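Hi F.,

I've been meaning to write this up properly since the lab meeting, where we talked about keeping a consistent format for the predictions we share between groups. The idea is simple: the sequence comes first, exactly as it goes in, then the structure tokens exactly as they come out, then a line or two of notes. No screenshots and no reformatting. I'm using this chain as the first example so we have something concrete to point to.
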Amino acid sequence: MRYRHVQARPAVRHGTPCAPPRPPYPDVAVVGSGIIGAACAEALTRRGARVTVLDRAPLASGTTAHGEGNLLVSDKPPGPELTLALASSARWPRLFAELGEELGAGLAERCEYEAKGGLVVALGEAGARALTGFAATQRAAGVTAHEVAPDAVHAHEPHLAPGVRAAVHYPQDAQVQPVAAAAALLGAVRRRGGTLRAGVRALGVERGKDGRVTALRTSAGTLPCGAVVNACGPWAGRFAAEAGAPLPVQPRRGLVLVTAPLPPGTVRHKVYDADYVGAVGSGDADLRTSTVVEATRGGTVLIGSSRERTGFEERFRVDVLRELARKATALFPVLGRVPVIRAYGGFRPYTPDHLPVIGPDPRLPGLWHATGHEGAGIGLAPATGELLAQLYAGERPFLAPEPYRVARPGLAEEARCSA
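Output, unedited:
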């Protein structure tokens, strides 16, 4: 299906037409300019909504700027997150083509979109059995996953260490430059009349006599609006509490190493050890590391990954960086001779059940959430934005929204405890 921008029309909330605020006030204020907020704003403006996007910092400078740009289906078990991932995987190329009509040809190339595929490997027998079993369940859910014989794995990745016991190739995995992708989405929002405001912190909301959101309170004053989208990423829990509707979203920190540029083809896919899936799904607050290696268009190699819940502590731990390097060189010995030129880290929005929160908040009419994607936000952004915009506009959603709702079992109880 192709989508097109339509002229502004009366706002629709929860499927009920209502009069929009007078210009220049927006129908919707999106709090957060990262990839999720940008995707929501793009999908809303495509439906004619007047949107203002605000961010406490420079645009797309938070979690989005500190990610690797992964668009993955390979690390997700069958379930709601995989459903979002498959929808987004199919949507990204079409979205670039459609936005290219507004922003100029070659947008996918400018955003460094690359359908490079992923290769997941296991070095031990137990890991090999788990990997092949996991891939079988994914195939039953619609994922393309090809088992690669151990004696054929080096045809895919010549520099892999010997001793791989099992490997699975995932051609649907891809990569994008996350800041460039977010900038493209925000560029479309601006071209359609949307407003982008950096350096403005959201402080809470104001309600009318009927209890609905009537305005967003910010560090730059009060912004009247008909709805607010909480797309604050790791800060979503903090903003939700300020708005009076607590949400159990916490920051989960991750670190990445960046090597000096290597010759093309040194690392051909996104490659990771099978234990990465367990680290992603873990709810432990303690440090979890797993091996993830991939090259960028510029030739540098990104090495991850780590996960730990330490609040908003920004200090890097040298032992974590050493562990990432040790595991990466065990998988790709060639990296042992390559200098690391920098390291960076960021915070991912973590929820207790590892599912994003997408949709209206029944406790506060007019408040919407699009957060909790943890490290998968880049890959899940197109489907997230589309689902939220469909629900806002009263359209029939393209997938069942219930698994992502605020009032789902488990998340609601956590929300009450965090109040």
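Notes:
The first helix runs from residue 35 to 46.
The longest strand covers residues 340-350.

If this format works for you, I'll send the rest the same way.

G.
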